[in-house]
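Predict structure. Chain length: 203.
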Amino acid sequence: AAHVKLDGTVDSSGLQYAAFGAGTASVRMTGVIGDQTGATGTFHVAVGQAMKAGKLLGSATVDARATIGLDGTITAVLQDHKVQTASGVVWSGSGGKLIVVPDTIAVRELKTGDGTGTVTANATIGRETGDLAADVDAKNVALAHLAPGFAGSVAASAHVTKKSGRWDATANVAAKGIVLAPDRPKLDGSVALAVHGRRVTTT
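Prediction complete.
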């Protein structure tokens, strides 16, 4: 069957889409084979100076083995990723899968870490509706990486949904060695949280 083989890099700068933008972006293709059904190969994607509404988010790189259909469907097996936030915190890891079909975008078993803690995420997002279903499991994550100025670590498991604009969520959060101010003692504790529409309960 007729096909083409692609090896090379596409670079761009000054990208803007709605409220999002990027100072630089590049895609490096290795052994990408394209035919009448789509393209399959290895991709390295790098985004620098990512912005939202003028606020710096950070930068990211992703390596993946992906199949891209002519209809826009994508199945990507994630190999390695690295995200550096605007505050300098680095999250990195390997593994997981990205699936894009006409109706939904799904992330499966995405694993990342900040050097001491780990986060595993699964999520499905409706492309037209914005409906969301997500499960997140975090262990030993440094609180300073989530809320600069605080010390200690947190672990959490959460299930979150959004359907027709309504948010529902349940979460169990455990905190260890939390320091909210230099003159305050360390705190340990746990809480169960539930959100149903506008109602929030804790136990």
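Summary: The mean pLDDT is 94.
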